[in-house]
Amino acid sequence: MGNNIRLKTQGEMDAMAHSGQAAAKTLQALKAASAVGVSTMDLEMLAREVLASQGARPALLNYHPRFSRVPYLYATCISVNDEVIHGQPSSKAILKEGDVVGLDLVAEIDGWLADTAITVIVGNGSVKAQRLLSVTQESMWHGIKKAVAGGKMGDVSNAVQRLVERNGFGVIRELTGHGVGSEVHEEGIDVPNFGRAGKGISLQVGMTFCIEPMVTAGSPLIRHRPGDPWAVVTRDGSIGAHFEHTVAVTEDGPRVLTMLQS
Ligand code: MF3
Ligand code: CO
Ligand code: CO
């Protein structure tokens, strides 16, 4: 493993950062629009508009990942409450006060992709939901800090897991981050959200991957929602959260390619 990893040049990272801006701005618009009475399909349509206005293509639209029987038909994955990831937008899914909403999308400009996600609360959420979100986001940052040349992927994984479990939440084992660049899921890199420091592939300058903790408020066990080829939900019905950045390993440390620049 690891010999088919496509390392990126500085120029390619710059190109990904350009898509990253489009993705980050789109997420910001979706966050601002996530209000009571809005449907997740309204958010999908807004995402398409905002991406287009920035010259970006929605890379998830018609994307057919290896792990799925069918292509994905939307620009966004919008996952509400017990849905952890890959919720499909729907005009029937109307947001309510306190809903926990995962917003995930991939932007492409000139063939270069950036994948990023946030989770937001509609109006006022429970204290537990707020804590779940802040711990999940913080665990992503702990992982990002370990994305340095000379380190191992296990350093990233372990940093994420430790923060999550120290706070009493669950790390999903079956779902990982991934290499990204000219494809949504690039071969050779997996980014588990649990593992041992010092293990896993060696991190090298030029690697680009998504660090994306998927965390549950209860048991970390998941299942596919019956009759839905996409949505991943918690088994126990507890809420889930997901934050994601696309990160490059550079000589100067981790470079977050999907960070919103003001
Ligand atoms: N953006 C998702 C990720 O973080 C990928 C969604 S794949 C899809 O890996 F097919 F469901 F769109
Ligand atoms: Co994503
Ligand atoms: Co991803």
Written account of the structure:
The chain is α+β, with helices and mostly antiparallel strands. It has one domain: Creatinase/methionine aminopeptidase superfamily (Creatine Amidinohydrolase), CATH 3.90.230. It is 27% helix and 26% strand. The strands form 5 sheets. Strands 1, 2, 4 and 5 form a 4-stranded antiparallel β-sheet that branches. Strands 3-12-11 form a 3-stranded antiparallel β-sheet, with no helix packed on it. A hairpin with a 7-residue loop joins β11 and β12. α1 crosses α2 and α3 packs antiparallel against α4. The longest helix has 24 residues. It is globular, with a radius of gyration of 17 Å. Bound molecules: 2-amino-4-trifluoromethylsulfanyl-butyric acid and cobalt (II) ion (2 copies). One cobalt (II) ion (CO) binds next to β7.
Q: Unreliable segments (pLDDT under 50, ≥5 consecutive)?
A: none
Q: Catalogue the ligands.
A: 2-amino-4-trifluoromethylsulfanyl-butyric acid, cobalt (II) ion
CATH architecture level-2 label: Alpha-Beta Complex
Query: CATH topology, what is it called?
Result: Creatine Amidinohydrolase
Q: Major sheet, described briefly? A: 4 strands, antiparallel
How many structural domains does the protein architecture include?
A: 1
Structural class: alpha+beta
Query: How much of the sequence is in beta strands?
Result: 25-35%
Estimated helix fraction: 25-40%
Task: Please describe the structure with a list of short key phrases separated by commas or semicolons.
262 residues, alpha+beta, Creatine Amidinohydrolase, 15 strands, 26% strand, binds 2-amino-4-trifluoromethylsulfanyl-butyric acid, binds cobalt (II) ion
